[in-house]
Amino acid sequence: VDDKRKLVGVITRFDLLTQYVSRPVDSFGGSKGKHKGGFAAQNPPKAGSVAVSNVMNKQVQSVAPSMMLQTAVRKMADANISDLVVVDEAIPVGMLTTKDILKRLSR
After folding, report:
1. Given this model, what pLDDT does residue 16 score?
2. What confidence category does residue 94 fall into, taking pLDDT thresholds of 50, 70 and 90?
3. What stretches of 1-107 adopt beta strand conformation (E)?
């Protein structure tokens, strides 16, 4: 968000994984061709050495608070994304995530 409260970018978990994770690891931290554990970055940068602007996605997908959930889900599917920024007159007011949607649908 800039000085005028306008959205200029967003960082999602997916952004961090795709930019800083490069190889699979097993549950004990070793490299594996087929992994059972998670992922680990090779030589990850220290948090204090990377500016947010270097990591953030500047092509932000957003929705209005009044948008119907079905339309937002379609937008997420079409863009192959898991998060949408909710904006009201270009000012961010929240986030809509797949977790939020699943919680709502499971009620």
Report:
1. 75
2. very high
3. 23-24, 39-40, 62-63, 83-88, 91-97
